[in-house]
Design goal:
Helix content is about 30%, strand content about 35%. The chain is an alpha+beta fold and about 200 residues long. Strands 1, 2, 4, 5, 6, 8, 9, 10 and 11 form a nine-stranded mixed beta sheet that branches. The chain has a two-stranded antiparallel sheet with strand order 3-7. The chain is globular.
Amino acid sequence: MVSQVQMKRLLLLAVFLAITTDLSIAASSGTADMHAARTLKTQRQPSDIEGVDWIASYEAGPLRTVYQAETACGAPLGDPYAIDRDAERGLVFLKDQHDRRVKRYAVPGARIRAIVHVKYDMTVLDRADLVFTDVPGQNIVLVHTTAENAGIFTSSDVYPLAYRHGKVVDSHHLVNDPSLAKMVEIGVSLYREMARRVH
């Protein structure tokens, strides 16, 4: 039998999770709204989850502002829960540097040719942003953003990818994640289609 004290703690935890999840969803949709104004094309296709589509949208560059990898923490950084998970060290993981953590990652808007956002059409945050840049050897910055721990943390994994002649040249980072590899394939396909229209 659950005591009143335990019941109060469970109720507080449930309220906390509900609030942080709503904040995470609101932050995520706020980011999406900001990009929607520059979106030139959106397309859907079935995903690897039955009954859920992938939505891909093309945003033209250059941007007036910097692109920032999305992060959020629904708990104070000094909270033991956040400390146990090293959130104070940053929620951006640089995959080409052995998962080195940083607090922020940004790409200058003037260097961006286009951004293709690919996400699952569901409330759980799982999005791949393919940031096409004019930086040699790092023509695509792949930013994979997900919500974790019941929405308390939003983190981003950053992968620099070489892109030549309409193809991702170096995709060894994606070998162990077929869903992410498919999101990249969808994003590159939409980018190529839109590039043909522009030129």
